[in-house]
Amino acid sequence: MDSTDRRIPADANAPVQTLHAGRWLSLRQRGRWEYVERNNPGGAVIIVAVTPEDRVLFVEQYRVPIRQFTIEMPAGLIGDVAGQEQEGVLLAAQRELEEETGWRCGRVTFVHAGPSSSGMSTENIAFVRALDLVKVGPGGGDETENIVVHEVPHNEAGAWLFARAAEGYSIDPKLFAGLWFLEHGLGDQAE
Amino acid sequence: MDSTDRRIPADANAPVQTLHAGRWLSLRQRGRWEYVERNNPGGAVIIVAVTPEDRVLFVEQYRVPIRQFTIEMPAGLIGDVAGQEQEGVLLAAQRELEEETGWRCGRVTFVHAGPSSSGMSTENIAFVRALDLVKVGPGGGDETENIVVHEVPHNEAGAWLFARAAEGYSIDPKLFAGLWFLEHGLGDQAE
């Protein structure tokens, strides 16, 4: 992308100032730009998981920042193990899927990673596909979480999400990206 | 959702502290939770737009927070006009589409709105569908922007995004949500 380098604004190389370093998040400034950064730099992973009965797994929980119940796909933060970035994503996904839903997966494949809001945050979100699911426990998350699991027939998942939105649940648009990956077979084959 | 109220954590009602109020963003804390909030509370809108030649509109620009070139759908911030929230979204979408791409749309329909990262931000993202497109100018954004427009055949859009990711562009996963809305006909009919 060398020919486009003149399109990089001058303040892209301005020094970074930390406006406030919190326990979990830091607010930073570079030139004109303010953005937030997780203190855990590993990012997050969203898990596209379908049971042997062709049901998509969703989790319901309360999110304090927006003060609403949300419907999400199983997800979690990734630990920061240098040199094992991909392994970090896949292992975190396996752990979080089982913790939140009670389903263990035999394989996890990487699908895509990108920014959740590139104008205001450095957060990077990976999508993975969980394969070979076996039910091993009740799910519900760890002791700090209170998660309800929903198993929704694959061909009804989009309509089900819109119905939950109409009921007042907050639905992250990225869930429809998960459905797009599923419908297009992304991550179906082990790499 | 009354029956699930016991699942709301106690700190959901803790008072909000502002850890830092920046020019554009504020870092806040409620109980254990830290999150970022735009000082412009109207949120953002992403525009799913297809030309009469069945080409999906994407824009390429540099994003300072992540220091990468991104591929996005046309998008922008929404002004804060109380009592005109939906009109605000639709008018902002029309203006941003024309400014960024040079395409004017005859109609805009609302598709979905939800959080971009509900664990760390209050940002709300609306998706709209732009209909009846007519080319009226060069696009490229306002004087502070330097935007390249890409028009990609609809049935190649997913593969094209993965090819750009392989080249090093940063691709927001929400773009695949936009493709899902398009493939499922969301917003095709005026309301």
Automatic annotation (TrEMBL), chains A, B:
| Residue stretches making up the Nudix hydrolase domain | 43-157
Q: Name one GO molecular function term.
A: hydrolase activity
Q: Give the protein family.
A: Belongs to the Nudix hydrolase family. NudK subfamily.
Q: Is Hydrolase included in the keywords of this UniProt record?
A: yes
Q: Which organism is it from?
A: Rhodanobacter glycinis
Can you name a GO cellular component term? cytosol
Protein name from the UniProt record: GDP-mannose pyrophosphatase
Q: Alphabetically, which GO biological process terms does the record hold?
A: nucleoside phosphate metabolic process; ribose phosphate metabolic process
Question: What is its cofactor?
Answer: Mg(2+)
Catalytic reaction equation(s): GDP-alpha-D-mannose + H2O = alpha-D-mannose 1-phosphate + GMP + 2 H(+)
Q: One Pfam family this chain carries?
A: NUDIX
Q: Which Gene3D superfamilies match?
A: Nucleoside Triphosphate Pyrophosphohydrolase
Annotated keywords? Hydrolase
